[in-house]
Fold:
Amino acid sequence: MKKQSKRILIAVAKEAISRKDVCDALRCKASLEEVFAKKGMRAETFYVEKKDFIEKENMAARILAAQPHCVFNLFEGFSDDSEKEAAFVRLLEGIRVPFTGNSSFTLSLCLSKRKAREILSKKNISIPRGVAVKSQDDVRSLSIAAPFFIKPCHEDASLGIDKDSLVRSKEELYRVVAKKIKEFPEGLLVEEFIEGKEYGVAFLGGLFCRPLGASLMDYTQYPHIPPYLTYNAKWEADCDEFKLLTPSVVTTQDRLTKRIITLAQRAASALRCRSYFRVDIRERNGIPYILDINPNPDINRDSGFIKQAYHKGYTYDEVIGRIVHLADRRK
Structure:
């Protein structure tokens, strides 16, 4: 009797929007389909729509009826509702279908930058000083000094990070907070801006993930553009920042690099990260600070995560195969 090929459901959002980070998931889906075809696996797209969260039982039934080997999770919520990312994984956990990437617990924590900061702080993991704000009045009690960095409390993919995110005076801070709070009413995070080099540390593995390596971004080489990654710098191929700001893989294992990787491991452990993820860090005067933890980061062939994997000796197919294998271990 012929052995039946494994069926992989690739979960992506379905919504009428052309935002670059949303479209990038569809580009990744196409790459995954190529990999699974070469491996003799059947890949099917599972579109997640807003209405599915009104009728969760129907969504669960559709997944179970497909009898997938696993769900390859590229669903990152909706453009106006990021929290559905964790809700979808919570459903998969409830029906006990294996899935790739991080748990609903970790996804929810990493999305809430305020909660993530609280946990890291309790673990004595260095983070920039900062405070969550929901109005201009909250800024009055701010005790940190300029320059400030402003980002939404409940968004990912650098959404809401633009040329106004770095402010260098309290007066400018009031103006920018008033403007951004209208766009992100769930709140903003105001942190001290860490001037210095930025590192990204990629991890691949189970509960005891091993680092693929670190990448480095040195903004001092580009004084005419913002010294941080804006949304456009990550996703808009036509802008100068996108063309210029390309991280380089760190090839040396000096004391600072080891310290950065160790800090990234501690932060990931505190938020129970697993499977694959990336930790972003800034270094000032030899001291690293956790900026952000990205569960289920971009894994397109040209992404920073995959470039670190290439440098480590992995092929793209091997990385995807490893991620699926880690989903198997959840059974």
Summary: The chain has a mean pLDDT of 90. The chain has twelve helices and twelve strands. The longest helix spans residues 20-38. The two ends are 25 Å apart (CA to CA).
